[in-house]
Structures are given as structure tokens and as C-alpha cells.
Amino acid sequence: MALWKTVGNSTLDGVSRVADLDASKLTITLSETLKPIPPRDTWLFGNIMTDHMVVAEFDPETGWSNPEIKPRGPLSLDPASSCVQYGTTVFEGMKAYIGPDGKPRLFRPDMNMARLARSAERMALPPFNIDQVLVLIKQLITVDRRWIPSSSGYSLYIRPTLMGTRMGLSVAASDHATLCIFLSPAGPYFRSGVKAISALAVADTVRAWPGGTGGHKVALNYSPGFLPLRVAQKQGYEQILWLLGDDMKVTEAGAMNIFIVVKRDDGEINLLTPPLDGTILPGVTRDSVLALAKAHAAGEIILPGLQQTLRIHAQERTFTMDDLWRWSADGRLLEAFGAGTAVIIASIGKIGFKSREDIILAEHEDGLGPLANAFRTTILDIQEGKEAWKDWGVLVDEL
């Protein structure tokens, strides 16, 4: 990790020093005409972009170029670029919020930057200084601050993207790269708002596999899921529940980490999520749910809507589709929900698989089960600066 954060970049042989990414050399060219902000009822996730973007390029001979903020527009890429031909693209998803004090803030951005670095390393892309990327994100947010919504549940989505831009068709790592950071105002991820979604369990197509890239946020993890999702939607389901192996281990729900709530024999509850075995993305929201559940169990906080005496046993452990059927038949499967930056928390109300009868979970008036609602409310309050917890909320002007 030290290489990516503190050591100046070098050529790939590790000897010759080249320029590191340096936010102090940032140049800013503002758009002459700012776009009008569309009405919020027209917003779909990722369909509206702000006025500006950050761009910096890496060359193996000279290192990172001086970064620039400029009007948002197309990038120039050779059709033989590595990112086009071999999918050498990694990215992050994070959000900026306006707090009650009127100041923009980020949610646990250090975790996003660390994951971006790991993803880039996994794809053999040139290294960069993650602290400098955060400074550039702050500068871009400051320039396009007018786009940050003030309504609860709304935010400014941030997409730092690193693309391999080596020109050539040889199958090799890209020693050229382009870093692009852009912003998109975001409302609720699902157009229907906060409600329970349905998921079709899929075993014949996998999202990730042992030794692959499932534990990293790389572009090629997402597109293979588009066709299975289309098939599921034609059958009336909204998302995919990804299974893996002959024993049908549950891995993720769509592009979200998955949690399930199971009643124990002693009346307490287990909160289960698959372990980080290389096939599971180490989500920031996932980590936050686990931390909050353990804090509630330790008496450090009381999650809203839950009794202080409710004992939550948060566990990272493998469970299978057969486990879900058994727990459901026994009346012990209380909740299932997905967790991710875009959606925060989404309850799963129905799970289908082939010709077997659907698993139906209890309906809740607000669309979220008690634990799902408790986690969503708490995380959103921290994100929006209504509640302080550890160092999770970071003011942009403190970066």
C-alpha cells in the first residue's frame, strides 16, 4: 500500500523516477456557460452530469501530467487503447452531501481511495498518490458545488475513473493511463424509491470467481451481468442474486453486497454477509453496516427503531441457497437486504430460483425491514452530517 500512497511514481522497472500526481499543479478552466440544473423528478441515477471534470494523464517517460479541471466533455482515445481492447478500467463510486451547516462532506473517502489503488494495482495500471486524488476530488466539488442537492436522500455522486490508454494490440499491461473524475447529482437509486425489491437467484452465470477480480472495482466485473439481469427482468424480477459453485454459495445481489437476518434458537439474531474471499467487493457500506451492528451489540450506540437489548451477532460467513430455503421454511429468515454506495440499503422482499417456489419475506409498510431501516437511517444521518460517528464524515474543506 505504501507504494501507492507515499512513494513517487516510477517507471515499471522501479528504478527511474518520474513525476507523481501533484494536485498543487492543478490548472482550472471554467466553463463559459453553466448548464441549468434539471428538476429533480427527472433525475435517474447517473443520467445528469455537472459542468466540469478533472483530467490527468500518465506517460511512462515523464510520469503524471499536471492535472486540470476543465469543462466536461469527451476524451480522446485511440481505438486500440488498452481500456477499449482489454477492459483495463477501474473506478470508484462515492458521494458528497450538504450538511445542516451548509458544508459539503464525504463519507469515509479513505476507504474509496484505498480500494481504487488496489483495483488499479490488480489491473497493472500505473500507480498514483491517493491523497492527491482526494485533493483533486475536493477541488472539483468546490467548483461544481451548486450541483450538490440539499434534500435528504439526494447527493452528488463522484466517479473517479482510471483507464489504461496504451495504444497497441499486444496483450500486455498498459503503461499509459488517463485519470478522469466527474460528478453526477443523484436521487434515489430505484425510481420507485425506497421499497423491497425482488431478486432471481442465478447459478449458471457467475459474477466473480476465485482468483478473479470480484474483490476489486473494475469495469469488466459489471458488463457480464447485463444479459442475466435482462433475463431476470423479463421474468418479473428486478435484480440478480449471484450464486457460486455446486453448493450455490450466495455472493452478491446485483451490484450490491448482501446481508440476511436470521433468528437464532436463543431468540437473538444473526446478521450474515459473505466473507471477503476474493469474489466479494469490499464495500464501504458493507463495512459500515458491520461496524454499526457490532457497536449496537456492544452498547456503543442504539440503532433507531431497535431495542437496546436486541443482541445482533454480525458475522462474515458463507451461506447457500439451500440455507435460505431452510431458514425461510423454518420461519427464521427475517430480512434480506443489499448494501452499496448508490442505493445505501435496499430490502429484498422476494427471491426466486428456477422452478422452485419463491422465498417471500415479510412486507413492511415503509419498504424496509427493521434492521435495514435502522442501518439506512443511521448511515444517511452520518453522511448528511446530522450525526457524528468516529471519523466517517469528512468535510471537504478539511481534506
Give a description of the structure.
InterPro entries: Aminotrans_IV, Aminotrans_IV_CS, Aminotransferase-like, B_amino_transII, BCAT-like_C, BCAT-like_N, BCAT_family. It is an enzyme of class 2 (transferase). Belongs to the class-IV pyridoxal-phosphate-dependent aminotransferase family. Keywords: Amino-acid biosynthesis, Aminotransferase, Branched-chain amino acid biosynthesis, Pyridoxal phosphate, Transferase. It catalyses: L-leucine + 2-oxoglutarate = 4-methyl-2-oxopentanoate + L-glutamate; L-valine + 2-oxoglutarate = 3-methyl-2-oxobutanoate + L-glutamate; L-isoleucine + 2-oxoglutarate = (S)-3-methyl-2-oxopentanoate + L-glutamate. This protein is α+β, with helices and mostly antiparallel strands and 399 residues long. It folds into 2 domains: 186 residues, Aminotransferase class 4, branched-chain amino acid transferase, N-terminal domain (D-amino Acid Aminotransferase, Chain A, domain 1); 188 residues, D-amino Acid Aminotransferase, subunit A, domain 2 (D-amino Acid Aminotransferase, Chain A, domain 2), CATH 3.20.10.10. 21% of the residues lie in helices and 27% in strands. Strands 1, 2, 3, 4, 5, 6, 7, 8, 9 and 19 form a 10-stranded mixed β-sheet that branches. A hairpin with a 2-residue loop joins strand 12 and strand 13. Helix 3 packs across helix 4.
Brief sketch in words of this structure:
The chain is built from eight helices and 19 strands. With 399 residues, it is an alpha+beta fold.
